[in-house]
Design brief:
With 434 residues, this protein is α/β, with parallel strands linked by helices. Helices cover 45% and strands 15% of the residues. The structure holds uridine-5'-diphosphate-xylopyranose.
């Protein structure tokens, strides 16, 4: 049993807190947002994540997990302090590090005994040294500390399972003993633990996310070529994936990647290379292809409907992917804005992201379910592949629509079956589409 303090009650911080508590440690989760902490103390989750509420309830009841807004209280017993605060996108694709800076400074000021500081926030390569500098500058006494970088690879929607069953744990530090002590925390997970230097650990995170984003843009480019040549990208990806060197993961063509990580991390990695005089042309292509995928939806709608002015378009799904209410960099936002700019009336429906959508895209008219969304629509666009959309009563949807047009940005339906039902149906990269 170790005493762990986690700074940040966002996605990464909360999941890290409950999982370490569930592994038997005593965890204090600290956030400066009083409303968030008050909510958590009453069992109200600030984010939607499968299984989180149950784990919070179980571990708080067992006395292993508590929440606070106070640094002195949060750090009183801490042996390990994890920094898991947000690093939003700054100007030019640079990362905005103000929250990491605030956390480092507050830790330094409250720390009165030796601690190991573990950075989980995605920060530009080299920031681990910078956190150490800030703490060195602001600590009140000569308290000993070490900084370890521990990048996270959690996917939203399956973050708890990803934490408990990781493919690997990466630790980076200039202090081997500190890294070894953090490794001990992860031993119960029985996974590969790689220890390297600070900068390399930080780079592993960026390179992993950029590689996955590259796979997505690669298959999206293949999809565009499939449309020109009459091939089916879904089967192409399937056939490619049987090659063990390639594998099937992250080869789903569609409206492109979104979320809190891929867009920001690819951009930040390109920026880091660029300011050092490198020319990261593959990363730029990955970003361009991703933006094109959103435009492809608008083009397909124009092929089906002609001018979009005055047409009513319904977006099925608003979250950046299923099983989350997160809309950061969601393709739905970009598509909605382009359609509105083209003069269309745009509506949307999402099984869980409605509250977030009302805040993020207030100009979007929201429907209560998929059927009321479809009513009177000239076209529907599948933007997020929620399971409930896969089992819709499509005959009812068709009869409710003004025109039976579906553009499927996630390939959840079968093209011949849709045509047979009388839909004008186009997916991404599935046969001729000029
Ligand atoms: C990602 C990484 O997977 C995780 O390791 C990292 O720490 C944070 O970023 P997340 O953003 O939660 O996780 O979602 P993920 O499931 O990876 O999907 C990212 C985006 O790519 C989504 O918009 C998804 O729809 C899209 N995607 C994914 C595709 O378009 N095609 C695919 O084949 C896979």
């Amino acid at each position: 049993m170790k005493n762990i303090t986690v700074i940040g009650a966002g996605h990464v911080g909360l999941v890290t807190s409950v999982c370490f508590a569930d592994l038997g440690n005593r965890v204090v989760c600290l956030d400066i947002n009083e409303q968030k902490i008050a909510g958590l103390n009453e069992g109200v989750m600030p984010i939607y994540e499968l299984g989180l509420d149950e784990l919070v309830a179980r571990n708080t009841a067992a006395g292993r997990l508590s929440f606070t807004t106070s640094y002195p209280e949060g750090l009183r017993e801490a042996e390990f302090v994890f920094i898991a605060v947000g690093t939003p996108e700054g100007v030019d694709g640079d990362a905005d590090l103000r929250y990491v800076r605030m956390a480092a400074r507050s830790i330094a000021e409250a720390m009165d005994h030796p601690v190991t500081i573990v950075n989980k926030s995605t920060v530009p390569v080299g920031t681990g040294d910078w956190v150490a500098d800030i703490i060195g500058d602001y600590r009140t006494d000569d308290v000993e500390f070490a900084v370890v970088s521990n990048p996270e690879f959690l996917r939203e929607g399956s973050a708890i399972a990803d934490f408990m069953h990781p493919d690997r744990v990466v630790l980076g530090s200039l202090n081997r003993d500190a890294a070894e002590s953090v490794a001990q925390l992860y031993l119960p997970l029985r996974t590969t633990i790689m220890i390297t230097d600070l900068r390399t650990a930080e780079m592993i995170k960026y390179a992993s996310n950029a590689f996955l984003a590259t796979r997505i843009s690669f298959i999206n480019e293949i999809a565009t070529i499939c449309e020109a040549l009459g091939a089916d990208v879904k089967e192409v990806a399937m056939g490619m994936g049987y090659d063990k060197r390639i594998g099937h993961a992250f080869l789903d063509a569609g409206v492109g990647y979104g979320g809190s990580c891929f867009p920001k991390d690819v951009k930040a990695l390109a920026y880091m290379g660029q300011i050092k005089g490198r020319h990261p042309q593959l990363l730029h292509a990955v970003m361009e292809i991703n933006a094109d995928q959103r435009r492809a939806v608008v083009r397909k709608l124009e092929s089906a409907l002609g001018s979009l002015r005055g047409q009513t378009i319904g977006l099925l799904g608003l979250a950046f992917k299923p099983n989350t209410d997160d809309m950061r960099e969601a393709p739905s936002i970009h598509i909605a804005r382009m359609l509105q700019a083209a003069g269309a009336h745009v509506r949307g429906y999402d099984p869980v992201a409605m509250q977030v959508a009302a805040r993020v895209v207030p100009e979007l008219e929201l429907a209560n379910d998929a059927y009321s969304l479809a009513e009177g629509c000239d076209a529907l666009v599948v933007v997020t592949e929620w399971n409930e959309f896969k089992n819709l009563d499509l005959a009812r949807i068709r009869d409710l629509m003004s025109r039976p047009v579906i553009i499927d940005g996630r390939s959840i339906y079968d093209p011949p079956a849709m045509e047979e039902m009388g839909f004008y149906y186009r997916a991404i990269g599935r046969g001729f589409d000029h």
